[in-house]
Write a structure and sequence with these properties.
Shape: globular
Strand order of the largest sheet: 1-2-3-4-5
Number of strands: 10
Number of helices: 9
Distance between the termini: 51 Å
Strand content: 15-25%
Structural class: alpha/beta
Oligomer: single chain
Order of helices and strands: EHEHEHHEHEEEHEHEHEH
CATH topology of the largest domain: Rossmann fold
Helix content: 25-40%
Length: about 240
Protein backbone atom coordinates (compact mmCIF):
# COMPACT_ATOMS: atom_id res chain seq x y z
CA UNK A 1 0.00 0.00 0.00
CA UNK A 2 1.30 3.46 -0.91
CA UNK A 3 1.69 5.66 2.15
CA UNK A 4 0.21 9.16 2.22
CA UNK A 5 2.68 12.03 1.83
CA UNK A 6 4.00 13.69 4.98
CA UNK A 7 4.04 17.49 5.25
CA UNK A 8 6.21 19.67 7.46
CA UNK A 9 5.44 23.38 7.77
CA UNK A 10 8.03 25.94 8.84
CA UNK A 11 7.28 29.61 9.49
CA UNK A 12 4.09 31.65 9.33
CA UNK A 13 0.36 30.97 9.51
CA UNK A 14 0.10 31.56 5.77
CA UNK A 15 2.52 28.69 5.20
CA UNK A 16 0.27 26.49 7.33
CA UNK A 17 -2.75 27.51 5.24
CA UNK A 18 -0.91 26.68 2.03
CA UNK A 19 0.24 23.35 3.42
CA UNK A 20 -3.39 22.40 3.92
CA UNK A 21 -4.08 23.34 0.31
CA UNK A 22 -1.12 21.24 -0.83
CA UNK A 23 -2.42 18.27 1.12
CA UNK A 24 -5.66 18.50 -0.84
CA UNK A 25 -3.84 18.80 -4.16
CA UNK A 26 -1.46 15.95 -3.37
CA UNK A 27 -4.34 13.76 -2.24
CA UNK A 28 -6.31 14.46 -5.41
CA UNK A 29 -3.24 13.61 -7.49
CA UNK A 30 -2.63 10.36 -5.61
CA UNK A 31 0.90 11.25 -4.54
CA UNK A 32 2.39 8.83 -2.04
CA UNK A 33 5.65 7.90 -0.33
CA UNK A 34 6.85 11.49 -0.22
CA UNK A 35 7.92 14.07 2.35
CA UNK A 36 7.16 17.71 1.56
CA UNK A 37 8.82 20.55 3.47
CA UNK A 38 7.18 23.98 3.22
CA UNK A 39 9.99 26.37 4.16
CA UNK A 40 10.31 29.93 5.45
CA UNK A 41 12.93 32.50 4.43
CA UNK A 42 12.17 35.47 6.66
CA UNK A 43 15.65 35.23 8.26
CA UNK A 44 18.90 33.43 7.55
CA UNK A 45 18.23 31.41 10.69
CA UNK A 46 14.94 30.20 9.20
CA UNK A 47 16.80 28.97 6.12
CA UNK A 48 19.40 27.25 8.29
CA UNK A 49 16.66 25.51 10.27
CA UNK A 50 15.02 24.41 7.04
CA UNK A 51 18.22 22.69 5.92
CA UNK A 52 18.55 21.08 9.33
CA UNK A 53 14.96 19.84 9.21
CA UNK A 54 15.47 18.41 5.72
CA UNK A 55 18.48 16.38 6.87
CA UNK A 56 16.50 15.05 9.83
CA UNK A 57 13.53 14.09 7.67
CA UNK A 58 15.78 12.29 5.21
CA UNK A 59 17.30 10.22 8.00
CA UNK A 60 13.82 9.29 9.23
CA UNK A 61 12.41 8.63 5.74
CA UNK A 62 15.26 7.12 3.68
CA UNK A 63 12.99 5.62 1.01
CA UNK A 64 10.66 8.59 0.48
CA UNK A 65 10.99 11.27 -2.17
CA UNK A 66 11.82 14.52 -0.42
CA UNK A 67 10.33 17.68 -1.95
CA UNK A 68 11.21 21.18 -0.77
CA UNK A 69 8.96 24.17 -1.40
CA UNK A 70 8.04 27.51 0.20
CA UNK A 71 9.80 30.85 0.43
CA UNK A 72 13.33 29.53 1.03
CA UNK A 73 12.95 27.22 -1.96
CA UNK A 74 11.75 30.20 -4.01
CA UNK A 75 14.60 32.51 -3.03
CA UNK A 76 17.42 29.95 -2.85
CA UNK A 77 16.48 27.04 -5.14
CA UNK A 78 20.10 26.24 -5.92
CA UNK A 79 20.90 25.86 -2.20
CA UNK A 80 18.31 23.14 -1.73
CA UNK A 81 18.86 21.50 -5.10
CA UNK A 82 22.49 21.01 -4.11
CA UNK A 83 21.52 19.06 -0.98
CA UNK A 84 21.90 15.30 -1.56
CA UNK A 85 18.82 14.71 0.62
CA UNK A 86 16.52 16.63 -1.76
CA UNK A 87 14.79 15.09 -4.77
CA UNK A 88 12.93 18.17 -6.04
CA UNK A 89 12.57 21.89 -5.39
CA UNK A 90 9.17 23.48 -6.07
CA UNK A 91 8.49 27.24 -6.15
CA UNK A 92 5.71 29.11 -4.35
CA UNK A 93 3.63 29.42 -7.51
CA UNK A 94 4.15 25.82 -8.56
CA UNK A 95 3.21 24.40 -5.16
CA UNK A 96 -0.35 25.71 -5.52
CA UNK A 97 -0.91 24.27 -9.00
CA UNK A 98 -2.76 20.97 -9.42
CA UNK A 99 -0.70 19.97 -12.45
CA UNK A 100 2.50 20.15 -10.39
CA UNK A 101 1.19 17.53 -8.00
CA UNK A 102 -0.17 15.40 -10.82
CA UNK A 103 3.31 15.48 -12.32
CA UNK A 104 4.91 14.53 -9.03
CA UNK A 105 2.46 11.67 -8.58
CA UNK A 106 3.14 10.35 -12.08
CA UNK A 107 6.59 9.53 -13.33
CA UNK A 108 8.11 12.13 -11.03
CA UNK A 109 10.54 14.59 -12.57
CA UNK A 110 13.80 13.83 -14.28
CA UNK A 111 17.24 14.97 -13.16
CA UNK A 112 17.13 17.97 -15.51
CA UNK A 113 13.76 19.05 -14.05
CA UNK A 114 14.51 18.76 -10.35
CA UNK A 115 14.00 22.50 -9.87
CA UNK A 116 10.55 23.87 -10.77
CA UNK A 117 10.80 27.49 -9.67
CA UNK A 118 9.45 30.28 -11.87
CA UNK A 119 10.00 34.04 -11.60
CA UNK A 120 7.66 34.99 -8.73
CA UNK A 121 7.62 38.64 -9.84
CA UNK A 122 5.88 37.63 -13.06
CA UNK A 123 2.87 36.22 -11.21
CA UNK A 124 -0.18 38.45 -11.48
CA UNK A 125 -2.89 36.43 -9.74
CA UNK A 126 -3.28 34.71 -6.39
CA UNK A 127 -3.46 30.94 -6.50
CA UNK A 128 -7.02 29.88 -7.20
CA UNK A 129 -6.95 26.89 -4.85
CA UNK A 130 -8.84 28.02 -1.75
CA UNK A 131 -9.49 25.54 1.06
CA UNK A 132 -12.51 25.18 3.27
CA UNK A 133 -12.08 24.51 6.95
CA UNK A 134 -8.46 25.06 7.88
CA UNK A 135 -8.03 26.18 11.49
CA UNK A 136 -10.23 24.42 14.03
CA UNK A 137 -13.75 23.08 14.20
CA UNK A 138 -15.10 26.56 14.83
CA UNK A 139 -12.49 28.85 13.21
CA UNK A 140 -11.38 28.95 9.57
CA UNK A 141 -8.70 31.00 7.81
CA UNK A 142 -9.28 32.55 4.39
CA UNK A 143 -6.31 33.80 2.37
CA UNK A 144 -7.42 36.94 0.53
CA UNK A 145 -4.03 38.39 -0.44
CA UNK A 146 -0.48 37.32 -1.21
CA UNK A 147 2.81 39.10 -1.91
CA UNK A 148 4.03 42.58 -1.02
CA UNK A 149 4.75 45.76 -2.98
CA UNK A 150 6.89 47.31 -0.26
CA UNK A 151 10.65 47.07 -0.62
CA UNK A 152 11.83 47.44 2.96
CA UNK A 153 15.56 47.25 3.54
CA UNK A 154 16.77 43.68 4.10
CA UNK A 155 13.24 42.21 3.77
CA UNK A 156 13.17 39.16 1.52
CA UNK A 157 9.40 38.59 1.59
CA UNK A 158 8.65 40.18 -1.83
CA UNK A 159 11.26 37.92 -3.44
CA UNK A 160 9.68 34.85 -1.89
CA UNK A 161 6.06 35.89 -2.37
CA UNK A 162 6.14 38.26 -5.33
CA UNK A 163 4.17 41.46 -5.81
CA UNK A 164 0.88 42.02 -4.01
CA UNK A 165 -2.08 40.09 -5.48
CA UNK A 166 -5.66 40.09 -4.27
CA UNK A 167 -8.39 37.45 -4.35
CA UNK A 168 -11.50 39.09 -5.89
CA UNK A 169 -14.21 39.97 -3.38
CA UNK A 170 -16.80 37.72 -5.00
CA UNK A 171 -14.54 34.69 -4.63
CA UNK A 172 -13.88 35.54 -0.97
CA UNK A 173 -17.59 35.97 -0.21
CA UNK A 174 -18.50 32.65 -1.82
CA UNK A 175 -15.87 30.82 0.19
CA UNK A 176 -17.04 32.39 3.44
CA UNK A 177 -20.62 31.41 2.61
CA UNK A 178 -19.45 27.82 2.22
CA UNK A 179 -17.64 27.97 5.54
CA UNK A 180 -20.69 29.34 7.37
CA UNK A 181 -22.82 26.67 5.71
CA UNK A 182 -20.38 24.06 7.01
CA UNK A 183 -20.86 25.30 10.56
CA UNK A 184 -17.88 27.57 11.14
CA UNK A 185 -18.54 30.37 13.63
CA UNK A 186 -15.47 32.47 12.97
CA UNK A 187 -13.52 33.41 9.83
CA UNK A 188 -10.09 35.04 9.88
CA UNK A 189 -8.91 36.96 6.82
CA UNK A 190 -5.20 36.46 6.23
CA UNK A 191 -2.47 37.52 3.82
CA UNK A 192 1.10 38.75 3.58
CA UNK A 193 0.19 42.47 3.47
CA UNK A 194 -3.54 42.57 4.14
CA UNK A 195 -4.08 46.32 3.92
CA UNK A 196 -2.82 46.25 0.33
CA UNK A 197 -5.81 44.09 -0.64
CA UNK A 198 -7.61 45.48 -3.68
CA UNK A 199 -4.85 47.70 -5.08
CA UNK A 200 -4.50 45.39 -8.09
CA UNK A 201 -8.24 44.92 -8.67
CA UNK A 202 -10.56 47.02 -10.87
CA UNK A 203 -11.60 50.26 -9.09
CA UNK A 204 -8.88 49.57 -6.48
CA UNK A 205 -11.17 48.76 -3.52
CA UNK A 206 -9.82 48.84 0.03
CA UNK A 207 -9.73 46.11 2.65
CA UNK A 208 -12.54 47.92 4.46
CA UNK A 209 -14.70 47.57 1.34
CA UNK A 210 -14.12 43.81 1.39
CA UNK A 211 -14.99 43.59 5.08
CA UNK A 212 -18.19 45.61 4.63
CA UNK A 213 -19.19 43.44 1.69
CA UNK A 214 -18.66 40.25 3.68
CA UNK A 215 -20.73 41.58 6.58
CA UNK A 216 -23.52 42.63 4.22
CA UNK A 217 -23.64 39.48 2.08
CA UNK A 218 -22.95 36.89 4.77
CA UNK A 219 -25.16 38.11 7.65
CA UNK A 220 -25.15 34.66 9.28
CA UNK A 221 -21.39 34.83 9.94
CA UNK A 222 -21.11 35.19 13.75
CA UNK A 223 -17.58 36.58 13.81
CA UNK A 224 -15.14 38.01 11.28
CA UNK A 225 -11.54 38.64 12.29
CA UNK A 226 -8.54 40.14 10.54
CA UNK A 227 -4.99 38.94 11.05
CA UNK A 228 -2.06 41.34 11.50
CA UNK A 229 -2.32 44.61 9.57
CA UNK A 230 -0.38 47.84 9.19
CA UNK A 231 -2.40 50.30 11.29
CA UNK A 232 -1.06 53.22 9.24
CA UNK A 233 -2.85 51.86 6.17
CA UNK A 234 -6.26 51.28 7.77
CA UNK A 235 -9.00 52.82 5.59
CA UNK A 236 -12.21 54.55 6.67
CA UNK A 237 -14.54 51.61 5.97
CA UNK A 238 -12.30 49.30 7.92
CA UNK A 239 -12.35 51.68 10.87
CA UNK A 240 -16.15 51.71 10.76
CA UNK A 241 -16.31 47.92 10.61
CA UNK A 242 -13.97 47.58 13.57
Amino acid sequence: MTSAPKFTTLGCRLNAYETEAMKELAGQAGLGNAVIVNTCAVTSEAVRKARQEIRRLRRENPEARLIVTGCAAQTEPETFAAMPEVDAVIGNTEKMAADTWARLAGDFIGETERVLVDDIMSVRETAGHLIDGFGSRSRAYVQVQNGCDHRCTFCIIPFGRGNSRSVPAGVVVEQIKRLVGAGYNEVVLTGVDLTSWGADLPATPKLGDLVMRILRLVPDLPRLRISSIDSIEVDENLMQAI
